[in-house]
Amino acid sequence: MAKDETLREAFIDELRDTFDAEQQIIKALRKMVKAANSATLRAAFATHLEETHAQVARLEQVFASLDEKIRGKHCDGMAGIIAEAKSIIDADFDDATTDACLVAAAQRVEHYEIAAYGALIAWANVLGHREAASLLEQTLEEEKETDEKLTALADGGINQEAAGNADRDDETTSTRDAAAAKGRPAASVGKKVKKADKAKKAEKVKKTGKAKGRR
Ligand code: FE
Ligand code: FE
Q1: Residues with CB under 5 A from ligand 1 (ion)
Q2: Å from CA of 200 to ligand 1 middle
Q3: Quick one: which of 13, 17, 37, 212 has the most CB atoms within 10 Å?
């Protein structure tokens, strides 16, 4: 950026960054809808996907209100957050843990957006762009509501269910420990654990396959 560029240029630059971020989020949310195991979480992601489409349209209105070309600029921050979310989807977590991790990832996305829109609104206000500020405020409200909804879902059962699975895993480990203590070959118990893991993986593949067929 040239040294004589002003807050208006910074504002437009941030708008472009956010415009790109929203488009990255649309792609990510489509995957998160498919990856979510809980029906309520899936519905929450689907609702926010619809809202995000409207947010992109709202940003287009913001550009128009400023007589600026509608253009995105790669948002590295969002790309990083989404890469982390993708690694959760690809990981081998049990269903409940996957959901708990998806909520955590989605909240990172929302918090980033809340920070971005907060700054954009403050700048729109000091620059006297009232129409832009009011459009951006509508989106900020949706991001905050989404964040709260995700917290409610996590606290309302998703985290607890994941923790329940963690407890069961602990039991499996203690069975193995107990077997070892009794002098039984721990390896045979270990094999059972591996078998259970394999079955879980096969189930996951089956489910993904089915899910793909549905689409
Ligand atoms: Fe958004
Ligand atoms: Fe959002």
Answers
A1: 52, 55, 113
A2: 35
A3: 17
Neighbours of ion ligand 2 (CB under 5 A): 113, 143
CB–CB of 28/109 below 8 Å? yes
> 166 and 153 share a domain?
no
Is the same domain home to 146 and 190? Answer: no
Cα 22 to ligand 2 centroid, rounded to whole Å: 8
Total count of domains within the chain: 2
CA distance 13 to 71: 10
- On whether both 64 and 142 belong to a single domain, the answer is yes
Domain encompassing residue 66 = 7-157
Residue 1 lies in a domain: no
Do 152 and 168 fall into the same domain? no
Q: How far is CA 58 from CA 121, 130, 189, 200, in A?
A: 13, 14, 58, 43
Identify whether the C-beta of residue 110 lies closer than 8 Å to the C-beta of residue 148.
no
Q: Which residue has the tokens 């620059």?
A: 127
**pTM as predicted:** 0.78
In the prediction, which pLDDT does 165 show? 83
Quick one: pLDDT at residue 2?
56
Q: pLDDT tens digit string along 13-60? A: 999 999 999 999 999 999 999 999 999 999 999 999 999 999 999 999
Sign of the torsion angle spanned by Cα atoms 164, 166, 169, 174:
negative
Judged by phi (left if over 0) then psi (alpha if -120 to 50, else beta), residue 130 lies in: alpha
Question: For residue 171, what pLDDT band results from cuts at 50, 70 and 90?
Answer: low
